[in-house]
């Protein structure tokens, strides 16, 4: 339910201000939300464990043209800290993310729980463990299920996938131009595993973003989400083919 003491404008401003990825929302989304007249919020799903608290909220806005608009908020972090003895308050160290696409928030949630935290880690370190990691990373994926393309602002989805990529060897401008003709897409998680890298846990998830173009042809972006970074933060890399994406995951296991 909405806070009766908070206007819709104040509610939206608060969400955008605290979200780590608010800059990634399309300008058209922010402009439409600027016309919101009323709003309602509800908890959509949650996951709680000793190491991770994660909730997904659904914020529904009534726009001035009479249509509804849904904004998805992902809130995650470890268990809350104890109270600050000086202020007597309990600091909220959680992270907030916003998405205007339900598929995107599901991917982000899976990255935090099903893709990483709920998969058993590999065993002891050593040459055999390293070999097991590489074997799993390079293993052929199971036969894919039939694609169910959804026409849902797919060209903008492709733009956002390319925009959040942090690797310099990803698809270039030619691919970006090609994907402007995308009118439907399908997202598949083809790999997810947590393993030991440089003596600590790291998670790897591989997604295929398949796009159907206006001329009837298909093309895909391969997105690698992992935490094999020096500070353990999540990193996104995007590649034009599966072999290159899996090769990138393999090289990440050799970080020292």
Describe this structure in words.
The protein is 29% helix and 32% strand. It contains 7 helices and 8 strands. Helix 4 packs antiparallel against helix 7. The relative contact order is 0.11.
Number of strands: 8
The neighbouring-strand order within the major sheet is: 1-2-3-4
Percent of residues in β-strands: 25-35%
- Find the structural class using helix and strand composition: alpha+beta
Tell me the series of helices and strands, N- to C-terminal. HHEEEEHHHHEEEEH
Q: Low-confidence parts lasting 5 or more residues at pLDDT below 50?
A: 80-91, 115-134
What's the alpha carbon Rg, rounded to whole Å?
20 Å
Q: How far do the termini sit from each other?
A: 48 Å
**Helix tally?**
7
Keywords summarizing the entry:
single chain; four-stranded antiparallel β-sheet
Provide a quick synopsis of the model.
This protein has helices at 8-18, 27-33, 102-117, 127-138, 154-163, 173-179, 242-252, and strands spanning 36-48, 53-63, 68-77, 95-99, 182-197, 200-213, 218-226, 235-239. With 256 residues, it is α+β, with helices and mostly antiparallel strands. Mean pLDDT is 78; it is low at 80-91 and 115-134.
